[in-house]
Amino acid sequence: MNLKRHIIFVIACIAVLSTTAQNDVRPLIEKGNSFYEKKEYRNAAVQYKHACQLDSLSFDAWYNFGNALYNLNKYILATDAYDKAMKLTADKTLKANIFHNAGNMECDQKHYEKAIQLYKQALILNPKDEDTRYNLAFAQEEFRKEEEARKMLEKMNDQLKKDEKPKPSKFAEECMKKAAELVQQFKFEEALKLMQESAQKDKTVDLFNDFIQKLEGIVTIINDNKE
């Protein structure tokens, strides 16, 4: 993922910083930039945070603070810093960079669907950004793989459920045992009645449906002979 760092130096800060000495955060941003370039992100974050506290309306401070936090994997705090920076600029390219970085954070966490939406927002603002276009394609491909894997897993689970044969309950097995004992005593009608009544109480008794049907046939023959 290509982080849109956009480290802003003094010359770019002059237009957005207050002219009062007490709000001049340029030295802090410069110091933070120095740490950032050396990949000392924790130290950079400290400087940018001080700049944000000193001038809460500094886009540069909030944006660079977000970048430093991003590199420290502090995604929630980075998102908050980016949100603040987003409200402090009307520049489409800068807004696009924020969306790009936010998309990267979602990719890092494998939240590809969210990343896709953020990259698309970035491209709306900056259609010529090839880095964002590349990252979008990456996120889309990873999301496609995830969806395929999810669908395959669902299909496998559905197949397993179909392949699983239901088992009779202990109650159903006990009823079957008693019915079989009655059959051995030639008490077919009692055995059939037992199974039919048991089936009303426990659906798994129906698993012995072949046995019940044979009993019904025998009882029918017996009754016909009585007539």
How would you explain this protein's 3D organization?
The chain has eleven helices and no strands. α5 (75-86) packs antiparallel against α6 (92-108). Mean pLDDT is 85; it is low at 5-22. It starts with 9 loop residues before the first helix and ends with a helix. Helix content is 74%, strand content 0%. It folds into two domains: 10-158, Serine Threonine Protein Phosphatase 5, Tetratricopeptide repeat (Alpha Horseshoe); 170-226, no CATH class. It is an all-alpha fold and 227 residues long.
**What distance separates the N and C termini?**
88 Å
CATH class of the largest domain: Mainly Alpha
Shape: rod-shaped
The level of helicity is: over 70%
CATH topology of the largest domain: Serine Threonine Protein Phosphatase 5, Tetratricopeptide repeat
DSSP strand content: under 5%
Number of separate domains: 2
Structural class: mainly alpha
Strand segment tally = 0
Specify the CATH homologous superfamily of the largest domain. Tetratricopeptide repeat domain
Biggest sheet architecture: none
CA-atom Rg in angstroms: 36 Å
Low-confidence stretches: 5-22
Mean pLDDT: 85
Number of helices: 11
Question: So, CATH architecture of the largest domain?
Answer: Alpha Horseshoe
The sequence of SSEs as H and E is HHHHHHHHHHH
Q: What layout of secondary structure does this protein have?
A:
Layout: H1 10-13, H2 26-37, H3 41-54, H4 59-71, H5 75-86, H6 92-108, H7 112-125, H8 130-163, H9 170-184, H10 188-201, H11 209-226
Helix pairs in contact: 2-3, 2-4, 3-4, 4-5, 5-6, 6-7, 7-8, 9-10, 10-11
